[in-house]
Design a protein that fits this description.
metal-binding, Alkaline Phosphatase, subunit A, Sulfatase_CS, Alkaline_phosphatase_core_sf, Sulfatase, 20 strands, ten-stranded mixed β-sheet, Arylsulfatase, C-terminal domain
Length: about 475
């Protein structure tokens, strides 16, 4: 009998250990996606006159990626790429969808939420969606169990830059009232939590998102979960809750950033309070660079050239921090070329997901999380903009820019205090080559000195045009998929 009891106790203990290992094999995942946050907008990347101590600690104890690119420097395209691991133009997506445009992320595309839901995860999105606001395209049609947030950008509302109702001759007067929506499990259509009519209504969004995030963590602490928190800030119009107004020396933008930092603090505290911090991956990044013509109501590209809406580094290079205490035991810097598309591929490898039906463009960096000496795997990157314009390509630290016209923030002053200044226009008339290791601000064209590098980059461009097409050279591309449209 004693031997029998001993055997039973051993089996129970082994079973308990195995279950614990299984739980570790399914870490919780929190993906925080900022809006228009520039590379230089965190304390750890040089921000001045406001403080982000929570994010700085997260960077100092986790991995900070310094060479992290989004595939397009604009809202809907960047979000589609993040959630599917795919170049947005492969899916027919470009720009920022307007309200009630009748288009969205195609239901056939497979998102991070669908992937993780198939692995038993609870899934929720909080914040900005911007991948189609009609019922056919809402997040609960793309793998999310629940949704709480706004359907598109927070400036798509019938309100002027001064926070007052738009004048009838203004283009924004045609926008519908901006709703804060909620879809709970099983609902087909969203409920409107509140109508966002003015800047004071905007000021509660970060606080409300944060509370929803904490509630989600508390309610799902005993099972694996995926939380996608897509903040409305720092997209203009920016707004901070009363608690944070006047707390920084950088005006309202600094106040907004300090509230975002506090939000991260509350989320990390809830993980710790529930005993799940060590087994939770937290990823913090942004959809594109700063909207620089809004002056003091937007941020900094950290010295990189240009900002949102441009294929220069200031538009597409963004901060990225990853924390995972179970695997990342000390802080480090990762300078390898990586992309927001790679997050999908990394999580697919982590979760042993084999069911991907569509071609993706992400490349897993999972081994770089646990091994500081692991090499980078991404060697190249395509820089598309507009409908399908290949404006540049990348090979390691080399970047080849093709002739094109683009918006520019240079040579013209921004406006301030919530008002947007005019854009300039920049024209590249001949190909330009930049060595981003020596010249990260893209100022010195070295094309004549590097004919062999030029040949490699032209080969990469030809691959891109054959695969995805290029309107600038009238190339069709062989592997593009249709945009989702209302039937």
């Amino acid at each position: 009998m004693n031997r029998f009891l001993t055997t039973i106790l051993f089996l129970l203990a082994f079973s308990s250990i195995s279950l614990g290992q299984g739980k570790e094999a399914q870490p919780n995942i929190i993906l925080v996606f900022m809006d228009d946050l520039g590379y230089g907008d965190l304390g750890v990347t040089g921000a001045l006159d406001y403080h982000t101590p929570v994010l700085d600690r997260m960077a100092n104890n986790g991995i900070r990626f310094t060479n992290f690119l989004v595939p397009q420097a604009v809202c809907s395209a960047s979000r589609a790429a993040l959630l599917t691991g795919t170049y947005p133009n492969r899916m027919g997506i470009s720009g920022a969808f307007m309200p009630n445009a009748g288009v969205g992320l195609a239901p056939e595309e497979e998102t991070l939420a669908e992937m993780l839901k198939s692995k038993g995860y609870a899934t929720q999105i909080i914040g900005k969606w911007h991948l189609g606001n009609e019922p056919e395209f809402l997040p609960t049609k793309q793998g999310f169990d629940a949704y709480y947030g706004i359907p598109y950008s927070n400036d798509m509302w019938p309100v002027g830059f001064d926070g007052k109702p738009a004048k009838t001759d203004s283009y924004v007067a045609k926008y519908p009232v901006l709703p804060l929506l909620q879809i709970k499990g099983g609902q087909e259509r969203p409920d409107t939590v509140m109508k966002i009519n003015n800047l004071e209504d905007q000021a509660v969004l970060t606080e409300k998102y944060t509370q929803q995030a904490v509630d989600f963590i508390n309610n799902n602490r005993k099972k694996p979960f995926f939380l996608y928190l897509a903040h409305s800030m720092t997209h203009v119009p920016i707004a901070a809750s009363k608690k944070f107004r006047g707390t920084s020396e950088q005006g309202l933008f600094g106040d907004v950033m300090q509230e975002i930092d506090d939000s991260m603090g509350q989320i990390l505290k809830s993980l710790k309070d529930n005993g799940i911090a060590d087994n939770t991956i937290v990823i913090f990044t942004s959809d594109n660079g700063p909207w620089l013509n809004f002056g003091n109501h937007n941020g900094s590209s950290g010295g990189f050239r240009e900002g949102k809406g441009a294929s220069w580094e200031g538009g597409q290079r963004v901060p990225c921090i990853i924390s995972w205490p179970n695997k990342i035991k000390e802080g480090r810097i990762n300078n390898n070329l990586t992309s927001s598309m790679d997050i999908y591929a990394t999580i697919a490898e982590l979760s042993n997901f084999k069911g991907q039906k569509n071609q993706i463009d992400g490349i897993s960096f999972l081994d770089q999380i646990s091994d500081s000496k692991a090499p980078g795997h991404r060697q190249s990157m395509y820089y598309y903009y507009n409908k399908n314009d290949l404006e540049a390509v990348r090979y390691k630290n080399w970047k080849l820019v093709f002739p094109h016209r683009s918006r520019s923030y240079e040579g013209i002053l921004p406006d301030n205090d919530g008002f947007g200044g005019k854009y300039n226009e920049h024209e590249i008339k001949e190909m330009e080559l930049y060595d981003l290791r020596r010249d990260p601000s893209e100022r010195y064209n070295v094309i004549e000195q590097n004919p062999e590098i030029l040949k490699v980059l032209l080969g990469i461009a030809e691959e891109a045009r054959n695969d995805l097409g290029d309107n600038l050279t009238k190339s069709e591309g062989k592997n593009r998929r249709p945009l989702g449209r209302i039937k």
